[in-house]
Write a structure and sequence with these properties.
- The complex is a heterodimer.
- By secondary structure, chain A is α/β, with parallel strands linked by helices.
- In chain A, 50% of the residues lie in helices and 7% in strands.
- Chain B is flat.
- The interface between A and B is large, with 64 and 65 residues.
Chain lengths: 544, 412
């Protein structure tokens, strides 16, 4: 059937696409119809939406935030009451964004929300706000473009004023219709609120010195009492002070949660609350000494809780613990708390169940040897041999001061035949030690390209010496023979290492003339790389 | 309920008053508003050019007074005035400034404005319009907000405006508003020579004026919009509060920081929003709460939020500072930590993450700008809080053990 069709189709097709072309066209039509059936946005889309929610619900769903919620409600005021700009600030994951969105859901007032994290420069921020105000939806019909192109602040203020006047007139008409029809519910008022989230990121933008005063002064620039401005930031208002002044918005502070509130938050959504609360009795205090941010804590406590439930028969699904069980579980978990404390900020790349199964498999072999090799570890990525040598040379060049090069990299290729003239005095040794330690603590140093190439050549010559008998096994290296094998394309390797951020390339200094490089890898990684090459790195390290 | 409605209405009325500049500044004969009106109306009637600067600290009502004056003048001379508004934040470069002037002129005279017009087109259009307006005896008022930002760079806009005013046919008034009291010193010589040095100073109100303003703002009108005894009782309570000694002390403390009108209004706004809707009257507590919620100590609050490990890191950094060690980065802080405790209770990356939290809270910051070349562990950092703040913060923090405070001063 398909073969009959094939000579008739004008262009080449595979059989499967030919057979599915008929169904594809109908599905295309279906999707086109779906796209067209998305209605244009109305003013009601500026509301947060969702089921109506009462103030008490909000207060109970955000433990420890009742005073902030009540303060915000008071400052927002009754319907159609103008307000001065607000500035909400507090640490991360303290509930600022979610509280303001839930409050607007409760108050049922129109809101334009824009986050300065997703709108990462001023052009995108302006266009996103205008899109929302002009009720513009990006779809295939307008090829996903914005409503207005807006780059300069002057254009933004003009468009904003126009759009806001339109929206406010719309809202006024709506509320007059409601009044004339004697409907008392569904009032959304005449005011519109602009919310700027993640405002602290604006300080790092390119033109922050003009856009920050602009946004803070927006209330004065617009001169519209029906517009309310709310800024949300994770740093306090005194970090925004700059040369240009503005009238300060009213601050609302969100302190970090205290332990009791963290407990309440973590207890929600738990299947077995009594068991979890006895677990928190044991573990929460020590974790709170490190951090009190809810996100970090919930991620860190999850694996510990699973370990806590291990001795229970049903993994803690329905059991309410009594005192004796609590003591047993406490004894089980206590030695592990310290080790889990050190995993607090680690995010494992595999999901926890996968990690468990892999660990189980590994335990079947020889546990101690596997632990050792796991620690020393294999490299998680592949690199060519010459790239590995280049990386090690860069590491050595950053680590060792340049004056040691001559003695370390002499023709014998080792540091174990340094001649010692006489034993220096104690004080001199101490001073030398502190100086060396300081050098280490300052971080990796910079080096010019010539030094890197010199060290590289030295290392490669050392490495290739004893490999005469191995050459017939290495098919790649023997092609050019001798020293040339690993030296080819060094500069190409160097640029790819720079692109992969193993080596940092600095700007060329106008006085010295050449660019300087800096190695960015840690000592562990360098040791791993050297071990994979069977290269004695520790002999060359300055004070390992 | 009827009673609830008028309490909420009272709050609404007070809040709208605070956000409405027209209510605040009135037209008393001695005020800046009447002086300004007189100056502009005289130049309108005499068909001459003028330039005035309104100077005063931020929030003292320069814009509000100007708007009041312009509104009154527009009522008085409806056909003879057109107003062009520019802002230094938005239009400080000449191209956008002329574009904006052209756009506003077009809007006012119902002409079509083309966005693609070039700078030369726009400036020629502006000059031509000025001439036409002058011939028609229509005064163009240019309001230049943030005047000192226009005085940056080459001042081409200022020069062309003031120069156009020199010709006989044009009738224009240039009003500059600025927070810098030396704004006229910023002008170039040729611009300054064309500028008539008229300045109106907006000084912050004295204590008596502030109190009078408070009474004016908070007194409910005794008319049909509120039940009579409610309004009378409300006003009496307000009068009591304002004459109270404690309230005056709080007000003094607040206005010592910044005595401009806007600052005072901010305080009022907070107090009015905290008004108890049960009783429906303002009370002393409202003002006290407003005062404590506006005057904040952000660094102290941050320190109160810090965890145990973060406080340790701060104390180690303080000790390094006291010892005047030149190199202070994460590694040296860890070394100091080890000196104090002889061991590491927490793994290194946990400490590094706590260090990064401190960076986010802006209690410490990097001292160099080399973002990518060195990793977080090696970049030098410095403390952004003083020893007094650190001591205060440690005392205020619940999870701070007693020995930490003594550690700061202990030697070795």
């Amino acid at each position: 059937m398909d073969k009959d069709k094939a000579p008739q189709t004008p262009r080449r097709m595979t059989r499967s696409s030919a057979s599915s072309s008929s169904s594809a066209s109908t599905s295309n039509n279906v999707t086109a119809a779906k796209v067209n059936s998305l209605e244009p946005l109305t003013i009601n889309d500026l509301l947060v939406g969702g089921d109506p929610i009462s103030l008490d619900d909000i207060i109970s769903s955000f433990p420890g935030r009742s005073s902030q919620i009540l303060e915000i409600v008071r400052l927002l005021g009754p319907l159609n009451s103008p307000m001065l700009p607000l500035f909400m600030y507090g640490g991360s994951s303290t509930g600022k964004t979610s509280i303001i969105l839930q409050l607007f859901r409760h108050l049922n007032r129109p809101l334009v929300y824009s986050s300065c994290r997703t709108c990462y420069n001023q052009c995108i921020l302006f266009e996103s706000i205008l899109n929302q105000l002009l009720l513009h939806r990006k779809n295939a019909a307008n090829s996903y473009s914005n409503a207005k192109r807006c780059e300069r602040p002057s254009d933004f203020v003009n468009f904003l004023r126009e759009a806001l006047t339109n929206v406010i007139n719309n809202l006024k008409e709506k509320s007059e219709k409601l009044i004339s029809n004697n409907i008392t519910q569904g009032k959304i008022g005449n005011m519109i609120y602009l919310v700027f989230d993640n405002f602290n990121l604006v300080r790092e933008w390119d033109k922050s010195s003009t856009i920050l005063p602009l946004l803070f002064n927006l209330y004065d620039l617009l001169k519209m009492p029906e517009v309310g401005l709310i800024f949300i930031s994770s740093t306090s208002p005194d970090t925004f002070y700059s040369n240009m002044g503005y009238v300060e918005p009213i601050p609302i502070y969100f302190p970090d949660y205290i332990e009791g509130d963290i407990r309440q938050i973590l207890l929600r959504n738990q299947v077995n609350q009594k068991l979890y609360s006895s677990f928190l009795d044991v573990a929460l205090n020590s974790f709170c000494r490190i951090t009190r941010q809810v996100g970090d804590l919930s991620a860190a406590l999850k694996p510990l809780y699973e370990k806590y439930c291990e001795p229970l028969s049903d993994k803690g699904k329905g059991v309410a613990p009594n005192a004796e069980m609590k003591r047993r579980l406490f004894r089980h978990i206590n030695p592990h708390i310290t080790s889990y404390l050190n995993e607090v900020f680690k995010v494992s790349s595999l999901s926890s169940t996968e990690v468990e199964t892999r660990k189980e498999e590994k335990w079947k072999g020889n546990p101690r040897r596997l632990e050792q090799s796991e620690e020393l570890g294999s490299l998680a990525f592949h690199m060519s041999t010459s790239a590995k040598y280049l990386l090690i040379s860069a590491f050595l060049a950053s680590r060792n001061p340049a004056t040691l090069d001559a003695s370390l990299f002499d023709s014998k290729g080792g540091s174990d035949n340094r001649k010692r003239k006489r034993k220096p005095s104690e004080k001199a040794l101490e001073r030398k030690e502190t100086l060396e330690e300081e050098l280490l603590m300052k971080g990796p140093g910079t080096f010019p390209l010539e030094r890197l190439l010199a060290i590289f050549q030295c290392l490669v010559s050392v490495a290739e010496e004893p490999s005469d008998d191995e050459e017939q096994n290495n098919d790649g290296l023997g092609v050019e023979g001798g020293n040339g094998g690993l030296m080819s394309d060094v500069l190409l390797q160097l640029s790819s290492l720079c692109n992969a951020s193993f080596i940092f390339k600095g700007r060329s200094c106008p006085i010295e003339g050449s660019t300087r490089y800096r190695s960015t890898i840690s000592e562990d990684l360098a040791l791993k790389v050297a071990r994979s090459l069977k290269f004695p790195l520790s002999k060359y390290l300055y004070r390992s | 309920m009827e009673r609830e409605n008028h309490k909420m209405k009272a709050v609404n009325v007070l809040r709208s008053r605070i956000c409405d500049p027209k209510f605040i500044f009135n037209d008393s004969p001695d005020s800046n508003c009447s002086k300004l009106k007189f100056m502009i109306s005289s130049s309108v009637t005499e068909a001459c050019n003028n330039s005035i600067l309104l100077l005063g600290p931020r929030g003292s009502g320069k814009n509000a007074v100007l708007e009041l004056a312009i509104q009154d003048l527009l009522q008085q001379y409806p056909e003879s005035i057109s107003v062009i508004r520019l802002n230094g934040l938005l239009h400080s470069d000449d191209i956008s400034a002329f574009k904006e002037i052209a756009r506003q002129l077009c809007m006012e005279h119902q002409l079509l404005f083309s966005k693609a017009a070039s700078f030369d087109d726009n400036s020629q259009f502006v000059v031509a319009m000025l001439k036409e307006c002058g011939l028609a005896h229509k005064t163009v008022i240019f309001v230049l907000d943030e005047f000192d930002l226009f005085a940056q760079g080459k001042q081409r806009l200022l020069y062309s405006l003031l120069d156009a005013m020199q010709s006989i046919t044009s009738q224009a008034v240039v009003l500059g508003i600025s927070c810098r009291l030396d704004a006229d010193q910023l002008l170039e010589k040729r611009v300054r020579s064309r500028f008539s040095h008229r300045k109106l100073l907006f000084l912050p109100p004295s204590m008596e004026d502030s109190q009078r303003l408070l009474v004016h703002m908070l007194t409910l009108p005794i008319d049909s919009s509120f039940p009579h005894d409610y309004a009378v009782e409300f006003n009496r309570k307000v009068q009591n509060i304002i004459e109270d000694r404690r309230f005056r002390e709080t007000l003094n403390k607040y206005l010592n920081v910044d005595s401009s009108v806007r600052h005072l209004l901010r305080f009022l706004f907070c107090a009015v929003s905290h008004m108890d809707l049960q009783t429906g009257f303002l009370s002393q507590e409202n003002f006290e709460i407003a005062f404590s919620s506006i005057q904040r100590q952000p660094k102290l609050e941050c320190l109160r939020n810090c965890s145990f490990l973060e406080l340790h890191i701060l104390v180690c950094m303080k000790r390094l500072e006291v010892k005047e060690q030149s190199l202070c980065n994460f590694n040296s802080v860890m070394k100091e930590y080890k000196n104090i405790h002889n061991s590491f209770q927490y793994a290194r990356h946990v400490c590094l993450r706590a260090f990064e939290h401190l960076l986010h809270r802006e209690l410490i910051c990097f001292t160099d700008n080399r973002g990518q070349s060195l990793s977080v562990e090696f970049r030098p950092v410095k403390l952004l809080i003083s020893s007094a703040e650190l001591h205060q913060g440690l005392s205020a923090n619940n999870s701070c053990p007693g020995y930490l405070k003594k550690l700061i001063d202990r030697e070795g």
